[in-house]
Amino acid sequence: MRHNRRLRWAAIPIAASLSLVLAGCTQAQLNGFLPGFVEGEAPVTNHTERVSGLWVTSWIVLLIVGVITWGLTIWAVIAYRRRKGQTGLPVQLRYNMPIEVFYTIVPLILVLGFFAFTARDQQAIEQRFAEDEVEVKVEVIAKQWAWDFNYVNEDVYSPGIQGQLDDEGPKGSLVQSELPTLYLPVGKNVEIELESRDVIHSFWVVDFLYKKDMFPGKTNYMSFVPEREGTYAGKCAELCGEYHSLMLFNVEVVSEAEYEDYIESLREAGQEGQLSSEYDRNQNMPGTGAPELNEEHEAE
């Protein structure tokens, strides 16, 4: 009884301290120090909270498992240490069925749990909008070592060049104004078609907490809703050659009026139409059908 009372009195200050620490956490700390979160503001997209939730929950579970494992290890070291006057080997055990079942079943449950929650969230993130729900459609084309943007619904385009070093700035800095910039209106259903003109690339907007690979001859898609205006850095996340590190871009999430003004500026600059596949370096991609015999072979 006295032992239980001591445990109860010890648990009170521990719980109070834990509550105080959690209450003082910033938005970034509560979201696992991931980028894209600002105190008092909306998440960058409708998916960022889901991604951070999976990340933080996974770490909490892993830390609990780690604490239990470290505690049992330290306890075993102390409880079964060699005492003064002891000689020879301790009692040797060949196996312990309950313990073996425990350390087989528990990791299996953890792996299945991580898989289930990851599959659930991935399905939600990868779910494309219905065709009539898409409000903004952009084709993003990766190339060594820059990005082209086709605004499909508006029938305008914006070509890009790789990052240019700024000779007047600090060593290694880039001219930000020359980076390709993708404009998106806030609060709209956006679908991005991802294409590659040459090798494998990867479209990564850091604050979106999500990236997608881009393969020659295959179209991948990203569907999301930008929820906070701002400028967000993007880059290629797949090593793609000599100037991979300069394959950068920005994403500007702006109001609908600013987005319309930008589209109009592209029209005024004569950038109407769409950049097509005629610039692709992979012009010999194999087809998916069986080869057809010509008339001579058919006669034989």
Q: What are the segments in which pLDDT stays under 50 over at least 5 consecutive residues?
A: none
Q: How many runs of DSSP E, i.e. beta strands?
A: 10
The CATH homologous superfamily of the largest domain is termed Cupredoxins -  blue copper proteins
Task: Please identify, by name, the CATH architecture of the largest domain.
Answer: Sandwich
Rg over alpha carbons: 28 Å
What's the arrangement of strands in the largest beta sheet?
Answer: 3-2-1-5-8
* Amount of beta strand: 15-25%
Portion of residues in helices?
A: 25-40%
Number of helices: 6
Distance between the termini: 98 Å
CATH class value of the largest domain = Mainly Beta
What letter string, H or E per element, gives the SSE order?
HHHHEEEEEEEEEEHH
Name the structural class. alpha+beta
CATH topology name of the largest domain: Immunoglobulin-like
Mean pLDDT: 85
Supply the number of structural domains.
2
Largest sheet: 5 strands, mixed
The general outline is elongated
